[in-house]
Task: inverse folding
């Protein structure tokens, strides 16, 4: 019975998800790429350089055999880059023919792979809106993304910081350093990432102290390192690369603050990144409660494994691994089962909580989380000679649940408990 109950919970979650998300999946396909725009110094007169990195997930495109090379598959598309100033006037536009190539066309490979296309352009200092559009030639599909950027004059102050690049991979070829940016700013799959930037020193002022600090979502400092630019030597462009290990970081969102300072001047550059699932609906800082909330879907041994983590970071890692194991489409960023589970949990907390009990812990919350919304609710709050009660019917699974408010304070309890049946699922 317990094994059947665990399978039923997953089936109910999945069944509801696919009905609810039929339109969402179509919406998700429209975002065929992502991009990051970073600002650096350029010797191009009064203009600064804007580097654009476009990440193209191969699974979002269709490939056909190359006419020229054997075992090569190609997907062709048009890439449009438009830049607008604050008045809405277009100050730059370019359309280029691009192609993706691969020697493998298996779905699992395409879904897990991407290619980065770099572009650069030169703009006067100011605030701009960059719009990128992709048009896939064969399928006629199109997708566009807009982002804002501030282009700076790096020579106007005694020294200045470039934008900070989040680096997913550092390598070297023929003595040349190869830097691969993390376009999504999500580093959950990396053991180590790096922060790459320049300090542009415009004169012989005293030495410059360079600090890098990382703060978690609660503004707690979780990483710090320092370096400097010498006062008597050092070129105009001073490059810095700070490696960061993810081992000591909890899951969640983070802010990176890079500061360059001396007695006369200070400059600062800020970026953000996430570790794990950035769209997770709760703060992972309260990991013990999050683990408790899994009791309607997780096995007892799975919950014990999470709770036995020696640190919060280890518990969080095991928690996210649990949800990854339940993802019906691991090649995509969206975890349909997790999203549906927490949608129900949110609803239970909002509608079934009492003065002393969170909604997800109540009998009504438990049934809603396991089975979803009932097909019909028959309420009897004021019947003569009976306590308030409700009857929930689930026509598609042929189940009925009766709840009674025994004390008159809105704490509806199941007449026939299912707690022992559905708590944790199977124990083997």
Result:
């Amino acid at each position: 019975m317990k094994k059947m109950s665990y399978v039923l919970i997953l089936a109910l979650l999945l069944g509801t998800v696919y009905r609810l998300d039929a339109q969402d999946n179509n919406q998700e396909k429209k975002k065929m790429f992502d991009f990051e725009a970073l600002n650096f110094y350029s010797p191009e007169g009064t203009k600064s350089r804007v580097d654009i990195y476009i990440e193209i997930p191969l699974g979002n495109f269709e490939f056909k055999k190359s006419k020229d090379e054997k075992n090569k598959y190609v997907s062709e598309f048009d890439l449009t880059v438009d830049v607008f100033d604050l008045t809405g006037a277009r100050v730059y536009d370019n359309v280029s023919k691009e192609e993706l190539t691969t020697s493998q066309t298996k779905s699992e490979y395409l879904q897990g792979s991407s290619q980065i296309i770099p572009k650069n352009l030169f703009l006067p200092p100011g605030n701009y809106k960059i719009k990128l559009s992709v048009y896939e030639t064969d399928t006629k599909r199109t997708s566009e993304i807009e982002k804002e950027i501030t282009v700076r004059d790096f020579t106007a102050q005694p020294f200045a910081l470039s934008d900070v690049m989040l680096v997913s991979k550092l390598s070297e070829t023929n003595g040349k350093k190869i830097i691969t940016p993390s376009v999504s700013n999500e580093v959950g799959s990396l053991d180590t990432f790096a922060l790459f930037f320049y300090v542009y020193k415009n004169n012989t002022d005293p030495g410059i102290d360079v600090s890098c600090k990382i703060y978690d979502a609660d503004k707690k400092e979780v990483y710090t390192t320092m370096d400097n630019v010498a006062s008597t030597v050092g070129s105009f462009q001073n490059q810095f690369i700070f490696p960061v290990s993810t081992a000591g970081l909890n899951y969640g969102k983070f802010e990176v603050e890079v500061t360059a300072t001396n007695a006369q001047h200070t400059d600062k550059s800020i970026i953000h990144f996430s570790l794990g699932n950035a769209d997770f609906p709760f703060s992972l800082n309260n990991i013990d409660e999050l683990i408790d909330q899994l009791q309607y879907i997780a096995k007892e041994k799975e919950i014990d494994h999470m709770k036995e983590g020696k640190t919060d970071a280890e518990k969080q890692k095991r928690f996210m691994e649990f949800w990854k194991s339940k993802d019906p489409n691991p090649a995509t960023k969206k975890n349909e089962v997790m999203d549906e589970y927490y949608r129900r949990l949110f609803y239970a907390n909002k509608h079934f909580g009492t003065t002393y009990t969170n909604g997800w812990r109540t009998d009504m919350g438990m049934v809603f989380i396991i089975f979803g919304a009932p097909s019909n609710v028959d309420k009897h709050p004021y019947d003569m000679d009976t306590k308030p009660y409700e009857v929930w019917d689930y026509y598609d699974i042929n189940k009925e649940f009766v709840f009674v408010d025994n004390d008159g304070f809105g704490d509806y309890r199941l007449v026939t408990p299912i707690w022992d049946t559905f708590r944790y699922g199977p124990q083997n």
Confidence is low (pLDDT under 50) at residues 17-29, 423-428. Residues 2-20 form the longest helix (19 residues).
